[in-house]
Amino acid sequence: MRALLVAREGAVVAQTAARNELRALIVSAPPELRERLEGLPPTARLQACARLRRGRDRERAALALALRSLARRVLALREEADELEAELELRVRSLAPRLLARRGVGPISAAVLLVSWSQPGRLRSEAAFARLGGVAPIPASSGKIVRHRLDRGGDRRLNRALHTIVVGLRRIDPETKRYIARRVAEGKSEREAVRCLKRYLARSLFRQLEAMRKT
User: Fold this and answer.
1) Taking burial as the number of CB atoms within 10 A of a residue's CB, which of 102, 109, 140, 166 is the most buried?
2) C-alpha to C-alpha distance for 57 and 76, rounded to whole angstroms
3) How far is CA 80 from the centre of its chain?
4) What value, to the nearest 5°, has the Cα angle with vertex 165 and ends 147 and 191?
5) How far is residue 211's CA from residue 120's CA, in Å, rounded to a whole number?
6) How confident is the model at residue 211 (pLDDT cuts 50, 70, 90)?
7) How is 65-96 classified by DSSP, letter by letter?
8) Which of 61, 93, 125 is the last residue of a domain?
9) Domain boundary among 65, 93, 121
10) Quick one: pLDDT at residue 67?
């Protein structure tokens, strides 16, 4: 599962780079071609670029070849990333179906959680799991103001997974929205409320992971 995550992340990073290069070439393309391509939806734009013909003009031929090459690269990398994600989802469903069924937890986040947690006993407590994920609070008080901030260390892939889950929950989960609103009403900033939520999430997920292997 770790190998699949590494391969997928590489495909996604390469896809983003190719997409940015394609966008830069379209912006600098001749007006007629630029306007035609920019007026298309993202997927249709990729497909149109992938079908471009070189033509007789040498400069246009070079641009068409570059656009076609980049578009085909993006499409191939997207297919590769989707294939790897599908395989990850199959493995997560086999190992931890309840984790994947949890609201806000997608196949990539679930796979990262499983890989970081690894096995019962690897981490001595939920506090250690939170520290590993970079969501353990660190004192950052100043004068009479008592506050904490998030740890910037730890496993950054796990940290991104926790962040992705929280972002999703803030959008779709009424209970999460109420929690943040309540914390803000108590005097915390929204950022501090989200920090508390990430810490709570890490505790809850760790307990679920530990219970999963005991059943």
Assistant:
1) 109
2) 28
3) 16
4) 25
5) 9
6) confident
7) HHHHHHHHHHHHHHHHHHHHHHHHHHHHHHH-
8) 93
9) 93
10) 96
